[in-house]
Amino acid sequence: MENNNKLEKTEIVKLESVAALRKTMDDYFMRLKDAAENGTAKIAWCTSVGPAELLYSMGFEVYFPENHGAMLGTTKIADKYIPSAVVKGYSPDICSYLTTDIGAFLQNETPLQKMGFKSVPKPDILVYNTNQCREVADWFGFYAKHFDVPIIGVTTPLNIGELSPAIIDSVSKQIMDLVPELEKVATQKFDMDKFRERVGLSHDGCALWRKVLETARHKPSPINFFDSAIHMGPIVVMRGTQYAVDYYTILLAELQERVKNNTGSVPKEKFRIYWDGMPLWYKLSSMAKLFAKLDACIVASTYCNSWIFDDLDPAEPFISSALAYSKLFIVRSDEVKEDVLENLLKDFSIDGIIYHESKTCARNSNNRYGLQNRLFEKTSVPFLEINGDLNDPRCFSEEQSIIAIETFIDQLAGQKALV
Ligand code: SF4
Q1: I want to staple 100 with a disulfide (CB 3.0 to 4.6 A). Which of 78, 174, 234, 294 is the partner?
Q2: pLDDT tens, 130-154?
Q3: Which burial class, exposed, middle or buried, applies to 185 when counting CB atoms under 10 A from its CB (0-12, 13-18, 19+)?
Q4: Atom of ligand 1 nearest to the CA of 136
Q5: DSSP state, residue 401
Q6: Given the CA of residue 361, which atom of ligand 1 is nearest to it?
Q7: The whole model's pTM is what?
Q8: Residues 6 or more apart whose Cβ sits within 8 Å of residue 197
Q9: CA distance 136 to 258
Q10: Segment (H or E) for 61
Q11: Which domain holds residue 314?
């Protein structure tokens, strides 16, 4: 059993599952490398909330540029790459995953080179879903042109309030329409049983991921946002595989043990925070230490919750894929988002909310149209807004944000003292 009392306040209680995570991710990249270098499988590029199950069911190895964008963000040198994309006409104000990724590609650099890749794995086809944003289609369009390979996708309506049968039918039909295009490239024909199997595995992986995140309802929380942002790797890139199911079984067991032993992720948890918006990938570790020092644990987040697709159902693989991928938080109206957040605040016993307004990701910045004020009127849960960006460190003023966060936690402490 871990002993929190022995830890310095700035230390996060480390998860032992990190070793299994590293192996799961390394193996994933080795399968991709094998496909790229030895032609063991065709390679599809997919958006992070795209139809991964369909691609895996047809024998593709699947590569996710957004995962690569986040890897580039953690290298803390996105600002070295972004100017190369700007020269190609991509504004520095649009998605910095896109500009970092394309810029690094133009400079022929990738963190994958440390794993022996020559470059990012060349796609045989690119597949997107605009449920998260239109940027992904433009981003993939750059590579489709560069590699002269097909690009196909699903266009999902935005700001969805009621998930009507018309929306589900339209998205479901669009996913079905991908099949003949994929068959032109794949080594395997579409097989409904294989697709059902992948949808079932994706459901099981997502259900485990939900349970992982829900362990944070416990006080103290056994996991925090900074852990989750790292441990979400398999649910992003291996959704629809046994690998993700196996990994989250291991992680969940460790977290359940922590719950049993009352081991918190933050040594002395006093404040429970909700994080809305993207992570600051280049500041994960220093932010984790800051919050630990303040006895504050970020117990839930919009970002990590976004990969819970447990509406997937092998009995209705196309319809349930359409439902799961259109029910996603990012694609919903503010009214729906407010309801979702209101429930999360109660379920996770949240003391305060931090909204990260990410300069280059409008769709993941939920404080631009008054949601933060409306939610405060309903719940009285205090909030703080900080300005930054997912990848571009030039948009983030660290000193100013640290002062704001420290002051916010002080205010929460004052409020708690009054109760
Ligand atoms: S959702 Fe935001 S971060 Fe993700 S690809 Fe779209 S613009 Fe970029």
Answers
A1: 78
A2: 999 999 999 999 999 999 999 999 9
A3: middle
A4: 5
A5: H
A6: 2
A7: 0.95
A8: 57, 314
A9: 38
A10: strand 61-63
A11: 2-418
**Ligand 1 midpoint to CA 358 (Å):** 10
* Calpha distance 47→306 (Å, rounded): 13
Q: What is the number of helices (H) and of strands (E) in the chain?
A: 17, 8
Beta-carbon-side half-sphere exposure of residue 128 (alpha carbons within 13 Å): 21
Pocket of ligand 1 (CB under 6 A): 66, 95, 97, 132-133, 135-136, 361, 363-364, 390
Distance 113 CA to ligand 1 centre (A): 24
Separation between Cα atoms, residue 54 and residue 198, nearest integer Å: 7
Which residue's C-alpha comes closest to atom 8 of ligand 1?
A: 95
Q: Which two tokens stand for residue 379?
A: 């719940």
| Ligand 1 atom 5, closest CA | 136
Atom of ligand 1 nearest to the CA of 360: 7
What is each CA distance from 45 to 65, 124, 167, 321, in whole angstroms? 7, 8, 25, 18
Residues of the chain with pLDDT under 50: 1-6
Number of residues that make up the chain: 419
Rounded alpha-carbon distances, angstroms, from residue 389 to 80, 285, 328, 384: 15, 16, 22, 16
Q: What is the DSSP letter of 211?
A: H
What six digits make up the tokens of 419? 């109760």
Q: Which atom of ligand 1 is nearest to the CA of 278?
A: 3
CA distance 156 to 130: 6
Distance 70 CA to ligand 1 centre (A): 11
Number of domain units in the chain: 1
Report which of 169, 205, 163 is spatially closest to residue 319, judged by C-alpha positions: 169
Structure token pair of residue 199 = 């949808």
Supply the pLDDT for residue 40: 97
Tell me what pLDDT residue 13 has: 79
Within 10 angstroms of residue 274's Cβ, the number of other Cβ atoms is 22
Q: What is the pLDDT of residue 11?
A: 66
Q: How confident is the model at residue 44, as a pLDDT?
A: 98
Rounded to the nearest whole angstrom, what is the distance from the C-alpha of residue 278 to the centroid of ligand 1? 9
Q: How far does residue 139's CA lie from ligand 1's centre (Å)?
A: 10
DSSP character at residue 350? -
Q: How far is ligand 1, taken at its centre, from the CA of residue 191, in Å? A: 32
Q: Identify the helix (H) or strand (E) that includes residue 219.
A: none
